[in-house]
TrEMBL record:
Belongs to the RNR ribonuclease family. RNase R subfamily. Pfam families: CSD2 (PF17876), OB_RNB (PF08206), RNB (PF00773), S1 (PF00575). 3'-5' exoribonuclease that releases 5'-nucleoside monophosphates and is involved in maturation of structured RNAs. This is Ribonuclease R. It is found in: Cytoplasm. SUPFAM superfamilies: Nucleic acid-binding proteins. InterPro entries: CSD, CSD2, NA-bd_OB-fold, RNase_B_OB_dom, RNase_II/R, RNase_II/R_CS, RNase_II/RNase_R, RNase_R. GO terms for biological process: mRNA catabolic process. One of its GO terms (molecular function) is RNA binding. It comes from Candidatus Xianfuyuplasma coldseepsis.
Length: 711
């Protein structure tokens, strides 16, 4: 019935119809058929596939000035609706047009024919699907009524909690509250479901952020039981696998890592080429299709790494034990073995199920120290030092080969926190990336690329990591800003990968490096997962996937499952192919969504911990560099990665105009310019810990050795 209605409505553009006409066209004669027709029409109305006008006529939404999409609500009250149809532009919704919708809700918006310039503008007429069913916040009391101060500042309505719905929550407790009425006399009404603890208790701040994204830090008991039912590797497990236990595979990870996805082995061959073995934990052996573990992993999508904890995608029995390539233990793996020439090309390769026995658990720190001449460590690991240097040589070759084809090397800065016994940030500094980190990065890139290309040519269902090219508008902004800083980029609408990498090489080590890196990253599209191979622009790879981290990323687990199904088991039946073709779109979409949520959560917690740290330095002065300039002010980054906003109102020596093409603030009277890369001395004015917002004030331009410096 649904398909017949839609087919009729699409038969003529802008077609309008009524129940009576549909009865005639679809030959509806019995009362049962009429009931089914009315029910189907109501379902189409609820799903916002069709819409009804005042004359009780129905038409397809796509043939009207209505658009469905998700609301991106801003703190200042206005928002943008991102349409479900990616070919449509975002719709601006003013504050008075939000009509009770909340951030991330799926909504129906009526687009006005009178937009501002090229921008579409509209009013939300209906909320189709609520994103959030709970609110995280702090309980207070007002006029005898419980109130919730939401952590989400986009919620501007009062949130009330009746005393009988507090469930033991006290003043200043941080709670999770279920929404029971989205519009009660203009307010939101809630009932407390979880008391997280007093807002000052250890770990409550981070837990509140976790729950804000509907992420459960605890696995269901039945999922844990399924994970714990597996036994250690037996000989029957390895019968059909290539035995690599005598090959000196090693893991290289951070000092505090507990889950080891990948082990590597390098050997220089007699012909001058290199044999590179990348063996990845075979999680698909344990997490099988449609199992409880599989459904939980799909729901979570990814492990999440926060300063005070890790929320794994899989229970500890797998993530830190059977699926972790622990030193001295037999582990099931999938190996991508490659012969790489001295020019960086993969001459031959093989992908197969295997079993390894990790010979040594190495850390980035130790290998970097060996490369820096630590003789004591070199003696301790004498059996592996030769391979370390072969790894370094091969990584250099692979990197050079990538760069020749235009692969862009973004230098992103990570923060490392020192927390006290109460979980409070007492120090923060940049996480160093040395030679060994780059070695593993190059090896993983090559394995991911090799697996993706192999599967592409088989023309079977697969999941790719894609990265589309940047828009002309964003590239133009990058070119203008670089030009204002004295750097030239050849090209306008079409800029080559090599030109972008050349710019990064030019700014490396300069004051403008962070700003240029940041703007270039913002100029790029977001990398996502897709069942359609569109290539990876940033890496300049025609074929790319994620194969190397199945413990902590669901797409990698799916890649392993597809390798097992299509390559190792040779199951290429039509039913199997159709099953994965149907599933892959939703798997890619869900994986991209959970990745975005994890990034947002990690960013919020990091910003919160930075604000917590710098709150101990109010009124202190530090030297920093301008990392970004906007119409409302500028951002200054300190050497320890802490970033704060200097609001334009704080620049009180002149009236400043924002130059959008050049991304500069220019004084009207003095012509003083503030631009990316400028040295400034700031004073810490305020730190909003919950929101992770830091306010600075510029004291003077240029360096000063007399100022306090962040350690």
């Amino acid at each position: 019935m649904r398909d017949k209605i839609l087919s009729f409505l699409t038969s003529e553009q802008n077609k309008k119809t009524t129940i009576e006409e549909l009865r005639e066209v679809l030959h509806v004669s019995t009362s049962q058929e009429l009931t089914a027709l009315v029910k189907t029409v109501n379902e189409l109305l609820d799903d916002a596939v069709i819409i009804e006008n005042k004359k009780r006529e129905f038409t397809l939404i796509k043939n009207t000035n209505y658009v469905t999409g998700h609301l991106d609500l801003k703190i200042r009250g206005f928002g943008f609706v991102i349409p479900d149809d990616p070919s449509l532009n975002d719709v601006f919704v003013p504050k008075e047009g939000i009509n009770g919708a909340m951030n991330k809700d799926r909504v129906l918006v009526q687009v006005s024919p009178f937009g501002y310039g090229a921008r579409q503008e509209g009013m939300i007429t209906r909320v189709l699907e609520r994103k959030y069913t709970h609110i995280i916040g702090t309980v207070i009391f007002q006029n005898g009524m419980g109130k919730l101060l939401s952590d989400d500042k986009t919620i501007t309505q009062d949130i009330i909690i009746r005393r009988e719905n507090l469930n033991g929550a006290k003043k200043y407790d941080k709670v999770r509250a279920k929404i029971i009425n989205y519009s009660f006399k203009g307010k939101i009404e809630c009932v407390v479901t979880d008391v997280l603890g007093n807002m000052s208790d250890k770990g409550v701040d981070v837990l509140s952020k976790i729950l804000k994204y509907n992420i459960d830090p605890i696995f269901p008991p039945e999922v844990i039981a399924e994970a714990e039912a597996f036994t250690d590797v037996t000989e029957s497990d390895v019968e059909s696998r290539k035995d690599l236990r005598d090959i000196p595979y090693i893991t290289i990870d951070g000092d505090d890592a507990k889950d080891f996805d990948d082990a590597v082995y390098v050997e220089q061959l007699h012909n001058g080429n290199y044999k590179l073995g990348v063996s990845i934990a075979d999680v698909s052996h344990y997490v099988t299709k449609d199992s409880l573990l599989d459904k939980e992993a799909f729901h979570r999508g990814t492990s999440i790494y926060l300063p005070d904890r890790v929320i794994p995608m899989l229970p500890e029995a797998l993530s830190n034990n059977l699926c972790s390539l622990v030193e001295g233990q037999d582990r099931l793996t999938i190996t991508c073995e490659m012969e790489v020439t001295s020019s960086g090309k993969v001459k031959t390769y093989d992908i197969y199920p295997s079993v390894i026995h990790s010979h040594k658990r190495m850390t980035y720190n130790k290998i970097n120290q060996i490369f820096h001449g630590d003789e004591k460590l070199a003696e301790e690991y004498v059996d592996f030092v030769g391979m370390f240097y072969q790894m370094r040589n091969l990584a250099k070759i692979l990197k050079k080969h990538r760069e020749q084809f235009g692969s862009i090397n973004f230098e992103t800065e990570e923060s490392y926190f020192v927390l006290d016994e109460n979980g409070k940030a007492v120090d923060v500094f940049p996480r160093e990336r040395g030679i060994s980190e780059h070695i593993i990065e190059e090896f993983m890139l090559k394995a991911n690329q090799t697996v993706a290309e192999h599967m592409h040519w088989l023309d079977l269902p697969f999941i790719y990591r894609i990265h589309e090219k940047p828009t002309e508008e964003k590239l133009s902004r990058l070119i203008n800003m670089a030009s204002a800083l004295g750097y030239r980029i050849k090209g306008k609408s079409e800029v080559s990968h090599l030109e972008l990498q050349k710019l990064l090489d030019q700014v490396h080590g300069t004051e403008a490096e962070k700003g240029i890196n940041l703007l270039m990253l913002r100029s790029m599209q977001k990398a996502i997962y897709s069942d359609i191979n569109l290539g990876h622009y940033g890496l300049s790879f025609k074929f790319y996937t994620h194969f190397t981290s199945p413990i902590r990323r669901y797409p990698d687990l799916i890649v392993h499952r597809l390798l097992r199904t299509f390559l190792f088991e040779q199951n290429k039946s039509l039913d199997t192919i159709d099953y994965y073709r149907h599933k892959m779109t939703s798997i890619a979409a869900r994986s991209s969504e959970t990745e975005r949520n994890a990034v947002f959560l990690e960013r919020e917690v990091i910003d919160m911990k930075k604000a917590e740290y710098i709150s101990g330095y109010i009124n202190k002065r530090f030297d920093g560099i301008i990392s970004s300039v906007t119409s409302f002010g500028l951002y200054v980054t300190l050497p320890n990665t802490v970033e704060g906003l200097v609001h334009i109102s704080q620049l009180d020596d002149d009236f400043y105009h924002y130059s959008d093409p050049l991304m500069m603030l220019i004084g009207e009277r003095t012509k003083t310019m503030y631009r990316v890369g400028d040295h400034v001395t700031i004073q810490v004015m305020n730190a909003n810990i919950i929101d992770g917002e830091i306010d600075f004030k510029i004291i003077k331009r240029g360096d000063s050795n007399e100022n306090h410096r962040a350690q």
